[in-house]
Specification:
Bound molecules: adenosine-5'-triphosphate, magnesium ion
Radius of gyration of chain A: 21 Å
Strand order of the largest sheet of chain A: 6-7-8-3-9-10
Strand content of chain B: under 5%
Number of domains of chain A: 2
Largest sheet of chain A: 6 strands, mixed
Order of helices and strands of chain A: EEEHEEHEHHHHEHEHEEHHHH
Distance between the termini of chain B: 44 Å
CATH architecture of the largest domain in chain A: 3-Layer(aba) Sandwich
Distance between the termini of chain A: 52 Å
CATH class of the largest domain in chain A: Alpha Beta
Structural class of chain A: alpha/beta
Helix content of chain B: 55-70%
Oligomer: heterodimer
Strand content of chain A: 15-25%
Structural class of chain B: mainly alpha
Number of helices of chain A: 12
Number of strands of chain A: 10
């Protein structure tokens, strides 16, 4: 599985009041098994880009290739794309509609034309993967669950389609710290167990640094930076010029650097920062 | 898509028409609609159409924008045109199998179609050039004399404001939900009528849930700002009749006279 995006442009409401250039000349590739983190200021075009990857939006110009197959020329069947590329929107719990959790999660598999038995297997597996107890939850109404659980059920609804590429738009938005951690761990586990490409958008730099193999920074509809977390987060000045920041651990490391000559660190997580501080203290003491 | 519907939408601008008092525009629109029913021949419609397009030209709202939003409505008009064309008895102009077109049918079909088109464009000019807020403020003012006899004019206006304010929000919400369900493989385009109606459930249920959530948030926000109904409320922008409105009023009377006169032009 691979993704290749070439010279993508997208304009909302062309020729009307409220015309917005949301994407301009976006090109990038994603290799199999990669976790790609996307960051960018509000309105930079992240959500618009994600919707191009499973054909929900047709580009104004440019192409998207999934596994070498062009999905933007109007020739492929949409269900084939949706089968391969699962997209979880921001606040996905607002899409729940069925009477029971089981039926809601089965909506995707049913649309793919799977038989009842296969649907059941998929639903069970998906609910397990998002860390919920199938037997306990299957007959509950999705509307009586807690916010964090609703979100898991909604994510399960996409996972049940068994996508080879999973895309999540701000999966942790609006959750409390513990639900936030749970969802991240869950996303990580899904990636590892299903061996898929994972793309996610987040405004939390620590999450991006921790989870991603590669990071893409969007600004005003363009890709401003792209690289490994270490490469991207070493350009703190550029990021803050775009209204973004580096992970808090890195911020602290930079602060110490400016006060303590000789301190070296490119920490992205609290653990790495602690390691470097310890190292520095041992060196200066000895 | 769903966003292409421009019926009832506001087109930002600063033309003479935009600056008119909302009350003037409401009255003018009502009068225009009445006049369309006073008209009894094609000269009258010609005059009414010329006036309408003059107003559009002054308002600087692009014709393309107006027509794009009305495509669906025009389909309905085309349908009524065909119905009238074939259903009216009279002098036969053309006959083929069971289809008959009569002179009366043709003239009636044209009459109705032109009238409907003018009604729709005429009333959309009002919403295109008036902010929803001004429109409802104007309506409240116009209705306020009736509050003495117990008509809740403020509440009616408020309900309209809220409804208009949330049309774009709900459209956005609908768009999002449709996309989210499409991402789960939902298909809204194929199947027979029954299957299609059924495929709306995954959209309607979340939409209802969202509407209630939005309504609840709004109620809470209004209460937090100590909102309490009509009497004694002052407003930030008082609407006022100005010179332009006087000019418009004179033009309206003139136009009414011309339209009434047009009844007596014989074909
Ligand atoms: N349906 C729409 N109609 C018109 N303009 C839109 C629409 N959706 C997004 N836009 C505009 O396109 C631009 C990119 O929006 P997009 O939602 O992709 O940004 P984003 O990076 O996802 O932002 P956020 O972090 O707030 O989610 C913005 O300027 C936005 O106002
Ligand atoms: Mg977004």
């Amino acid at each position: 599985m691979s993704i290749s995006v070439k010279n993508l442009n997208y304009i909302y409401n062309p020729g009307m009041p409220g015309e917005t250039v949301a994407l301009s000349d976006v090109s990038f590739d994603v290799a199999d098994g990669t976790v790609l983190g996307i960051i960018g200021h509000t309105g930079s075009g992240k959500s618009t880009l994600l919707q191009h990857l499973n054909g929900l939006i047709r580009p104004t110009s440019g192409e998207v290739y999934i596994d070498g197959e062009c999905i933007t020329d109007g020739k492929v069947k949409m269900t084939d794309i949706r089968r391969k590329v699962g997209l979880v929107f921001q606040y996905p719990e607002y899409q729940l509609f069925e009477e029971t959790v089981r039926k809601d999660v089965a909506f995707g598999p049913k649309n793919l034309g799977l038989d009842e038995e296969e649907q059941e297997v998929r639903v069970k597996k998906a609910i397990d993967l998002v860390g919920l107890d199938y037997e306990e939850i299957k007959d509950l109404s999705p509307f009586e669950l807690s916010g964090g659980m609703k979100r898991r059920v909604a994510i399960a609804g996409v996972i049940a389609m068994d996508p080879k590429i999973l895309i999540l738009d701000e999966p942790t938005a609006g959750l409390d710290p513990s639900a936030h951690r749970d969802i991240l761990a869950m996303v990580r586990r899904i990636h590892d167990e299903m061996g898929i490409i994972l793309i996610f958008v987040s405004h939390n730099m620590a999450d991006i640094a921790e989870m991603s193999d590669r990071v893409m920074v969007m600004s005003e509809g363009k890709i401003a930076l792209e690289g490994t977390p270490a490469e991207v987060f070493s350009q703190g000045d550029k990021l803050s010029a775009m209204g973004l920041s580096v992970p808090p651990a890195r911020e602290i490391a930079e602060l110490i650097k400016s006060k303590a000559p000789g301190f070296v660190s490119d920490a992205l997580s609290a653990d790495e920062a602690a390691r470097d501080i310890k190292h520095y203290m041992e060196e200066t003491r000895g | 898509m769903i966003r292409d519907i421009t019926l009832g939408q506001y087109y930002p601008g600063d033309s003479w028409v935009h600056r008119l008092d909302a009350r003037t525009k409401i009255i003018a629109t009502l009068l225009y609609l009445i006049e369309l029913f006073i008209v009894n021949n094609f000269y009258g419609f010609l005059i009414a159409a010329v006036v309408l397009f003059a107003v559009i030209a002054i308002s600087k709202v692009p014709l393309k924008f107006i027509f794009r939003g009305l495509t669906a409505v025009f389909l309905i008009i085309a349908f009524t045109f065909l119905l009238n064309l074939f259903m009216v008895d009279g002098r036969v102009l053309w006959h083929w199998k069971f289809l008959t077109i009569t002179y009366e049918g043709l003239s009636r079909a044209f009459f109705m179609a032109v009238r409907l088109v003018l009604i729709i464009i005429g009333s959309s000019i009002m919403t295109l050039t008036t902010k929803p807020i001004e429109l409802t403020d104007g309506l409240e003012k116009l209705l306020s004399p009736f509050s003495k006899i117990g008509l809740p004019s403020h509440e009616i206006a408020l309900m309209m404001t809220i409804a208009l304010r949330f049309i774009p929000t709900l459209m956005e919400e609908t768009d999002k939900i449709i996309k989210a369900q499409q991402a789960r493989g939902a298909d809204f385009e194929s199947g027979n009528l029954f299957q299609r109606a059924k495929s709306l459930i995954p959209i309607l249920v979340p939409l209802f849930v969202s509407s209630f959530r939005i309504a609840q948030d709004l109620a809470l926000a209004m209460e937090a700002r100590c909102y309490h109904g009509g009497p004694g409320r002052t407003r930030m922008n008082e609407i006022r009749f100005e010179r332009g409105d006087a000019v418009a009023a004179v033009l309206m009377v003139l136009f009414l006279a011309v339209i009434i006169a047009s009844r007596f032009i014989s074909l």
